[in-house]
Amino acid sequence: MNTTTISSALIDALRTAQHVVVLTGAGISAESGIPTFRDAQTGLWAQYRPEELATPEAFMSNPRLVWEWYAWRRELVSHAAPNPGHFALATLQQHIPQVTVITQNVDGFHQQAGSQTVIELHGNITRTKCFDDNTIVDQWDETDEVPPRCPSCNGLLRPDVVWFGETLPLTALDAAYAATTGCDLFLSIGTSALVHPAASLPYEALQRGTTVVEINPDATPLTGDVHYSLRGPAGVVLPALLATTWPEGG
Ligand code: BJW
Questions:
Q1: Across all residues in the chain, what is the average pLDDT?
Q2: Among 196, 230, 238, which residue has the most ligand 1 atoms within 8 Å of its CB, making it the best to mutate?
Q3: Which residue has a Cα nearest atom 64 of ligand 1?
Q4: Domain locations along the chain
Q5: What is the mean pLDDT of residues 63-85?
Q6: How far apart are CA 36 and CA 96, in angstroms?
């Protein structure tokens, strides 16, 4: 395990925390077999840059390509499962009075693992909506046309996720800021800390004097500013952090 030492000060901070906020990114689902955005992809989609498919402009210029990319990812997610990192965060709820998970991921794995308070900043890949008016659509006619069309207005259907240049769901964003400003420990896990407004949340916590911990195998733009940087995969570091902090289990 390639982690920085889990110091006694960090253990004390965790043991006494009343409200922990956890910001997660694609890295926490990497050990479930879901590719991250900025690590190289292999196979079928290797020639595309994921962040270039995640825009309304990409959808408008080639809706079929974008729909099929999301159909492929939806399939990956449906055959994958939460990993020890997701489960460790759910276990945190047994030790800390309030735990809020703010995720940029669209896979629903935190909820599947048992986390009770999960704020989805970038939507959820299992939901579909109309590109024209944003109405959530549960059923549509399967024809040869890809993407399928909205049964109400005939607009093109798209995943209910947030693309670059689109605003985040306001309720989720407000809840994320409220949790961040009210917490006494902030964990940033498996995110490159590049995409805003999510990337601004740890800085909001730092400005308020809140202890911030980063868990990531690699350095990010945030690393130099945090109080503790634990270098390693979330599925290894998180269970180790819990086992060290609460050796009595739970
Ligand atoms: C491991 C690991 C292991 C590997 N364990 N770790 C302020 C400043 C500059 C720009 C902006 C700004 N405010 C807004 C912007 C514009 C833009 C933006 O941020 N651009 C930046 C790129 C510069 N933001 C937006 O457009 C947002 N909208 C918005 O702000 O609206 C108002 C507005 C609009 C226009 C202008 C100004 C304001 C919307 C952002 C939507 C992002 N959408 C996506 C797609 C979601 C749907 C989908 O899933 O397809 O969200 S893009 C993609 O990036 C996805 C992710 O959630 C997001 C973040 O990526 P993440 O999760 O960090 O993944 P990676 O791959 O980058 O990193 C993985 C990390 O894991 C790495 O560090 C690895 O080392 C690590 N790792 N294995 C732990 N085992």
A1: 95
A2: 196
A3: 26
A4: 1-34+82-122+167-250
A5: 96
A6: 29
